[in-house]
Amino acid sequence: MSFSREVKKEISLIQNEECCKRAELYALIRFRSTLAFSNKNYKIIFTTTSNFTARRIVYLVKSLYDIKVSLLQKERNKLDKKPLYYLVIASQGRHILEDLHLLKADHTYNEAIATKMFKKDCCKASLLRGAFLAKGSINDPFKNKYHLEIVANNSQEAEFFIQILEEIGVEAKTITRSKGEVVYVKKAENIADFLKFIGANTSLFAFEDQRIKKDLNNYVNRIMNCDVANEQKAIASAAKQLENIAFLEKNYGLINLTPRLLDAVVLRMTYPDDSLSQLSANSKETINRYLSKSGLSHCFKDLEKLVEEIKKNKPTSSLK
């Protein structure tokens, strides 16, 4: 089961107050239904591939209005093989729509959001919960990118979602696609806050657990890559230093080096593969005095400058 389905399964089982049930059903009707008007009554028709969403709709309608919901399941031949659920409220549809402020006084559909239904935080959470059940999705946390989205019908709905999310500290953005105005969240900590707000606590723990594991793995990989890169850099630097020493031995004479530079040469030739830190650690034992890492770095830079001066001042033919 995908992580989105796990979240929907969990939130479809939440028990809440009547005001929150109304807020959730409001979202499900607004985002998941179509309305058919006949004989001065509205027929409310839901379609969904989520059995959790279907069960939630039946529960909310039965709990709030004690009305029967007709349910039809249609098998499909698509690859995912998920059945399509049709839910129909054939009677008292107009009463439900009026009660949820989805109809105007002239009994036409109310495009404006009934903001007065969502004054309390619990009802705002229920609105988002219903919207997620209707048209929401979230990437599995073990994938490379974090992503949560809810598809709104228009910019007004999208802006209302963003406003609620901002109130709980969740940074969300919108993008227009063919399916509608998409409100999306990318940051892992914001997705965690969203799951907490809508009451998906078990999913939140699973999300955070996977995020910690992934972040730890990424950290370990970065450290390992950094160590490998540093080791390769140290090997390349040591090879260059040995090359300079060999050049000076043939074209200048190591005996002509200052004691400081000669000590650095002895250390490098004794430990050809070591890093500067390792050379420094072995300096006391090898040359009877301590040379710091920075001191060694300056020594090898001076040796390189000496090589460049010799190459610059001597004819190429005289260099060995």
Task: Please outline what is shown here.
The protein is α+β, with helices and mostly antiparallel strands. The protein is 56% helix and 14% strand.
Overview of the structural elements:
The protein is of the alpha+beta class and 320 residues long. The protein has eleven helices and eight strands. It has helices at residues 3-11, 18-32, 51-65, 93-99, 121-135, 155-167, 188-197, 201-251, 259-270, 276-287, 293-313; strands at residues 33-38, 41-48, 70-74, 84-89, 136-138, 148-152, 173-177, 180-185. The strands form two sheets. The chain has a four-stranded antiparallel β-sheet. A four-stranded antiparallel β-sheet has the order 5-6-8-7.
Furnish the topology, listing elements before pairings.
Blueprint: H1 3-11, H2 18-32, E1 33-38, E2 41-48, H3 51-65, E3 70-74, E4 84-89, H4 93-99, H5 121-135, E5 136-138, E6 148-152, H6 155-167, E7 173-177, E8 180-185, H7 188-197, H8 201-251, H9 259-270, H10 276-287, H11 293-313
Antiparallel strand pairs: 1-2, 2-4, 3-4, 5-6, 6-8, 7-8
Helix pairs in contact: 2-3, 2-5, 7-8, 8-11, 9-10, 9-11, 10-11
Distance between the termini: 71 Å
CATH architecture assignment name of the largest domain: Roll
* Radius of gyration using CA atoms only: 35 Å
Q: How is the CATH topology of the largest domain named?
A: Endonuclease I-creI
* CATH homologous superfamily descriptor of the largest domain: Homing endonucleases
Helix content: 55-70%
Helix-strand pattern: HHEEHEEHHEEHEEHHHHH
Number of helices: 11
Mean pLDDT: 89
Tell me the major beta sheet: 4 strands, antiparallel
The strands making up the biggest β-sheet line up spatially as 1-2-4-3
Query: How many beta-strand elements?
Result: 8
Number of domain modules: 2
Coarse morphology: rod-shaped
Regions with little confidence, pLDDT below 50 for 5+ residues: none
User: Strand portion, in percent?
Assistant: 5-15%
Under CATH at level 1, the class of the largest domain stands as: Alpha Beta
Q: Structural class, from helix and strand content?
A: alpha+beta
